[in-house]
Write a structure and sequence with these properties.
single chain; mainly alpha
Length: 42
């Protein structure tokens, strides 16, 4: 397991994680609408 195997994989992981977080930040937030029953007795 020489050739900086762990270091390379850690760098690849960090790059993928950074790209995922950057993409995640630009997604619009989804608003959940709560539906109230029309009959308040329920």
């Amino acid at each position: 397991m020489a050739d900086n195997f762990l270091e390379r994989h850690r760098e690849q992981y960090e790059a993928k994680k950074a790209a995922w977080l950057k993409k995640k930040k630009h997604l619009p937030k989804q608003k959940r609408l709560l539906e109230k029953p029309e009959d308040e007795a329920l």
